[in-house]
Amino acid sequence: MKLAVWDPDEPLRRWRDALTQHAGELGLAIEVFDARAEPDTQADFALVWKPPADWLAGQLGLRAVFNLGAGVDAVLPLMRSHAPDVPLIRLEDAGMGRQMADYVAEAVLHAYRRMPDYAVQQSRRQWQSLPLAPRGGFHVGFLGLGQMGLAAARRIAAMDFPVLACTRSGRARDGVDPAWPLYALDHLDEFLAACRVLVVLLPLTAHTRGLLDWRALQQLPAGAHLVSAGRGAVVDAHDLLELLDSGHLAGATLDVFAEEPLPADDALWQHPRVRITPHVAAATLVGPAAAQVMRKIAAIERGEAPGGVVDAGLGY
Ligand code: GLV
Q1: Best residue for ligand 1 mutational test, from 99, 284, 293 (most atoms within 8 Å of Cβ)
Q2: pLDDT(305) > 90
Q3: What is the DSSP letter of 263?
Q4: Are 73 and 146 in the same domain?
Q5: Are residue 121 and residue 263 in the same domain, yes or no?
Q6: 312: in domain
Q7: pLDDT tens digits, residue range 200-222?
């Protein structure tokens, strides 16, 4: 079977080596080609990161498309218009959960230990200890509890911070600790009011775009921190800046932005209480991702339904 890889960020050789090794272990014969170099070659399966619409439209025999990341917002609209009957499958963790947990753990400790306040004091050469909040009252709320949110929430709970979460349905799924208060999205305000740190790991959909605007962010308690590592357009950055400037929010750790790279003249770059990373919280790892994709292809070959099939209606 033929596997097309469209990935502007990795040399094809890395994907080919890893896919071929895992296919061999599963007893599957595959041929891997670089879709960017051979756009007219037809594939049975495609592994893609931000492919162009015309290439996808020209692929007429696809049995499934694998998104080489957790978030499918870039490819889903193309699939809807050019390949509506082809299943779109996202990566499920594949080594990204641990990276996300690391990123969020650092941000939560940074907030808890009042590092933004100490950074301001340092800029003034000020030597002054600040009181530490009781850990048991330092609630960390997860807005979005998919693969990334769950991995990070479990790490934060293991660090003895109280965890709460808000998801579309508010219903628990496997791996969610029954002790965590769970809110449905229509109780967002109530959830936000209880978060000392808000960790945003929602997928970007028509319902989540701009969800965290001034009105919503204002529900967070005074002195709260924001960690945004899912999709930038969920947060209104202008409103966020206003709430940081007014002192209502104490700090923000931002990995994702509505426009990436973040434009050089964006006010976020300069803000003393904002930390910026260039969309690196959880990178796709070729080895684990290739292993997972080959296992899913093997399941499809056996006539089974693989995990991670995107629900086009929900948008994730
Ligand atoms: C990264 O942003 C991903 O969606 O995997």
Answers
A1: 284
A2: yes
A3: P
A4: no
A5: yes
A6: no
A7: 999 999 999 999 999 999 999 99
